[in-house]
Each structure stands twice: as structure tokens, then as C-alpha cells.
Amino acid sequence: MTPAEAGTARPRQRAAVVVNPVKFDDPGKFRDTVTAVLAGHGWAEPLWLPTTPDDPGGGQVDQALRAGVALVLACGGDGTVTACGGAMAGRGVPMAIVPSGTGNLLARNLGIPLDQQAALDVAATGSDRRLDVGTVNGHRFLVMAGAGFDAKMLGGATEAQKRRLGWAAYALAALRYLGDRPMRVTLRADGGPPVRRRSSSVVIGNVGSLTAGIPLLPDARPDDGLLDAIVLTPGGLAGWLIVAVHVLTRRPSERVFRLTARKLQIDLDRPQPWELDGEIMGTARRLDMTVSPDELILRCPASPAGGAAAAGSGARPAGGCGG
Fold first, then answer.
1. Which string of b and e fits 159-169 if b means at least 16 CB within 10 Å?
2. What confidence tens digit (pLDDT) does each residue in 295-309 have?
3. Which residues have a Cβ under 8 Å from the Cβ of 239 and sit 6 or more positions away?
4. What is the model's pLDDT at position 316?
5. Which CATH code of 3.40.50.10330, 3.30.565.10, 3.40.50.10680, 3.40.640.10 fits the domain covering 3-132?
6. Cβ contacts of residue 235 below 8 Å, gap of 6+?
7. Is residue 279 flagged as an active site residue?
8. 87, CA 20 to 30 Å: which among 141, 163, 181, 198?
9. Rounded to two decimals, what is the model's pTM?
10. Would you call 157 helix, strand, or coil by DSSP?
């Protein structure tokens, strides 16, 4: 390159890396890998911003955007991805995911590789996609929120069990709560009439599949401007087997109730634990939910595969419900 060419060369793009260091066995090695992969794609050395117990990603995102980066990499588990995604909603800068953890539900649903090298390649070269962002009781979410059984199951799996057993740790935790007394639930979708059910679990999703590919909300799309809800009423230990069959086969059932909405209010007859993208949020008797269309720009594979293909766009009418 001549001196004249050097003087007119465009500066290389810079990314920020928001990383949860406890999710990586060797944070130093991971940093070297990120820097090398981005450099190989023509990016400048990234801005490195570790999360802390007091700030799981939101403050780091603000710092990154003030620095004028062109991309933010959320590196960690579902909690890190949600904290970063919530802070980046509506900010106009794309986010990429480098997953590390047990669930990695957004990555799985959108076909983002779980392999770190492949995920970094997507971050540097993939396509941008606009996703909806849900809000529950003032907290943003990207994947799913819920109350009752699912929150108990998530809260019952320890970090040590998740590291040792992976997603099977959640199945082990679930055994303790299969016989719990159901709750009474009242749902109001988009200001419509109340729907009352007995339920052990209520789950609301922006995407449809759980860990291991279980299609809990098979019609959910992350870019259709809607949230999908499912109300499960097993009615005892044996009833959970029936519910599982009906969920997997999508058979009409009094035990499985579904609806879609842009705005959803859920009232519970007593305080219940609730979760948001896999993080336990405490207990509540009401969940107020809304969806903001096209709020998050996410870097996805240029040629989607698996979950990304299944999560294609296409709006559906709100307010639909059925067994």
C-alpha cells in the first residue's frame, strides 16, 4: 500500500465483547481466540468488557455504544444474552451471540452455532435480522418467560449440576415438583374477555423450542410481532405424561391451552416463582406482558439452518387460542 493509499484507507470496524468470564474455563485463551478470529475477518482489536455479578451486561453495552462500536458480542449463557439484548433493543447496532452455558435457547432457535469458532465467524460475516423483544413486569426478554412449574424446575437446578449434567440437570430438578398443587390462572389477551384455567405452568415465548429441541410453542416466531402462550394442566403425576404427548404431537387437549397476543395479562391465585429467559425473578401474582416488534438487530448465519429456518417470519393474527 502506498502512503497515499494508506492515508485514504477506511478504518477497520471495531466490535465490543461483553463476556461473562465465569462461563469460560480459560478466559485469557478465549480472549485470544476472539481477537484472532475477528482480525482474520478484517476487524480491529475489540473492546473487552467483562460482566460482573452487579452488572450482567447492560452497563457494558452502554459503554460499548458510547465508544461507537459497530457490533456487540454477547458471550456467555442465556442471562448474559438477555441482559445485553435488553440493553441493545432499539439502539440500532447489531448484536452477535457466542454461546456458553447449558440452555443457549436463543442461539439454538435461530441456528447460531454452539461452537465458539463458528459462532465468531457468524458474528463477523453473518446477516442481520430484526427480532421482537418481549417485556414482563418491566423486564425485557428474548426467549421465554413463565410462572409455576417451569420456574421451579429452573430454580431447582444448581450450577454444579448444570456443569456436570447439562440440560439433564433440569429434568432431575423437575422430579421434585411434578406433584405440586396447581394454581388458578386468569388470562386476558389484548384486552379481551378473561380466560380462567387451573394450571401447573404458564409459559410465554418469543421462540418455540426448548433445550433438546422440544417444540413447546411450535408456532412462535421471533419476528411476527406476537407472543405465544401455553397453559399446562397435567392433573397429577400421570397427567404430565399425557401433557408431554399432547405437546409433542400437538393433539387438541383440555390439558394444553394455547393463545397468541400482543399484550397479555396473567393473574395467579397466589404468589408463584417466575422466570425470564432462564433467570429466576422472584415471586409474583401478576405478569403483565407486551411485545415490541423489530426492536433488536441480531447477527445470524447468512444461510440459516435448523432452528433459524424453522423460525421464519410471517405475521399471524393476534388473539388466537385453542387446545
1. eebbeeeeeeb
2. 999 999 986 444 444
3. 233, 255
4. 61
5. 3.40.50.10330
6. 182, 255
7. yes
8. 163
9. 0.87
10. coil
- What pLDDT is stored for residue 54 in this prediction? 95
CATH topology of domain 139-293: Tumour Suppressor Smad4 (2.60.200)
Amino acid sitting at position 134: G
Residue 274, C-alpha cell as written in the block: 417466575
Name the amino acid, one letter, at 170: Y
Lowest mean pLDDT among 27-36, 53-62, 205-214: 205-214
| Amino acid at site 75 | C
| Pairwise CA distance, residues 304 & 285, whole Å | 39
- Reading the block at residue 56, the C-alpha cell is 450482567
Give the residue among 307, 129, 274, 298 at the shortest CA–CA distance from 204: 274
Angle at 264 between CA 259 and CA 268, to 5 degrees: 95
Domain boundaries, the chain: 3-132, 139-293
If you search the block for the grid coordinates 405452568, which residue do you land on?
A: 201
CA distances 24 to 31, 50, 147, 193, Å, are 10, 12, 30, 48
* Cα–Cα distance, 106 to 115 (Å, whole number): 14
Of 112, 101, 118, residue with least CA distance to 24: 101
CA distance 21 to 116: 14
Task: Write down the catalytic residue from 5, 45, 254, 279.
Answer: 279
> Taking the mean position of all CA atoms in its chain, how far away is CA 97?
11
| Grid cell of 142 as nine digits | 428474548
Q: How far is CA 42 from CA 13, 14, 94, 112, in A?
A: 8, 9, 17, 21
> What is the pLDDT at residue 320?
53
Check if the beta carbon of residue 88 is closer than 8 Å to that of residue 106: no
Can you read off the three cell numbers belonging to residue 323? 387446545
| DSSP class per residue in 163-198 | HHHTTHHHHHHHGGGTTPPPEEEEEEETT---EEEE
Q: Under DSSP, is residue 160 helix (H, G, I), strand (E, B) or coil? A: helix
DSSP type of residue 21: G
- For residue 284 the three cell numbers come to 409474583
